[in-house]
Amino acid sequence: MARVALVTGGTRGIGAAISKALKAAGYKVAASYAGNDAAAEKFKAETGIAVYKWDVASFDACAEGVKKVEADLGPIEVLVNNAGITRDTAFHKMTLEQWTAVINTNLGSLFNMTRQVIEGMRARKFGRIISISSINGQKGQFGQVNYSAAKAGDIGFTKALALENAKGGITVNVIAPGYINTEMVQAVPRDVLEKNVIPQIPVNRLGEPEEIARAVVFLAADDAGFITGSTLTINGGQYHT
Ligand code: NDP
């Protein structure tokens, strides 16, 4: 029987590549998104992957959403916490809204989503929880105190949850991508990318979403059961902890 995978923010960017790669690997996949219906409908038409709209920053919306996905596809065995946003500005100008939106979407979502599925995974003695952090959670980034704090939190969340569930067939891992060619990074002006970002990347280019997706498929596999609590850095050699 095909395992069921849910990818949050699975309709665009890195998440879309993850959804497609999991489908190609034989999973029954659900992709969630926040509000870009046009992108979600296009993704669904192109891939045949089921899409669901809810806000991962809301615990109650996550409870409802997970219930719907499980009613349609069956119990979620692979959860990919990928949804994320940026609200960049220098800390001394940062508003409470910019802080809370980023913390709730990038870190709060790991509680909101994982809490819905963990009891079922524990009862079934199998689960894969894979979250997408960032290089900027490892090293910090100018203008991203909110994002760096949230993404560093994703790593701590992973390490602690991995310990609690290691005996029960559930692995918990986190991927820390460097700069990946998605709309999030395309929002950075091209000349800034070329002058300031790409020269910092030893491989001398942005990463592609598929290069993150293949690592998710690797960590999700049934025979990846000895990998837990780990942070997988995928950044073209830019930074190592
Ligand atoms: P995109 O902006 O391209 O896509 C983000 C996806 O997340 C969309 O599907 C979006 O839905 C969804 N999303 C955003 N907010 C919410 C929310 N509140 N509830 C539900 N879904 C939401 O992002 P990327 O693909 O670039 O990034 C994916 C992940 O990778 C993020 O966690 C990001 O922080 C991380 N990352 C990205 C890097 C990069 O270089 N791109 C580098 C390191 C980490 P909708 O389409 O409806 O807006």
UniProtKB/TrEMBL annotation:
Cellular component terms per the entry's GO annotation: cytoplasm
One of the Pfam families matching this protein, by short name: adh_short_C2
UniProt feature coiled coil, ranges: none
Residues annotated as domain Ketoreductase: 3-183
Keyword Phosphoprotein: no
Example GO BP: monocarboxylic acid metabolic process
GO molecular function: acetoacetyl-CoA reductase activity
Database matches in InterPro entries: Acetoacetyl-CoA_reductase, KR_dom, NAD(P)-bd_dom_sf, Sc_DH/Rdtase_CS, SDR, SDR_fam
Keywords: Oxidoreductase
Family: Belongs to the short-chain dehydrogenases/reductases (SDR) family.
NCBIfam families: AcAcCoA_reduct (TIGR01829), PRK12824.1 (NF009464), PRK12826.1-2 (NF009466)
Protein name per Swiss-Prot or TrEMBL: Beta-ketoacyl-ACP reductase
Species for this entry: Bradyrhizobium centrolobii
Lineage: Bacteria, Pseudomonadati, Pseudomonadota, Alphaproteobacteria, Hyphomicrobiales
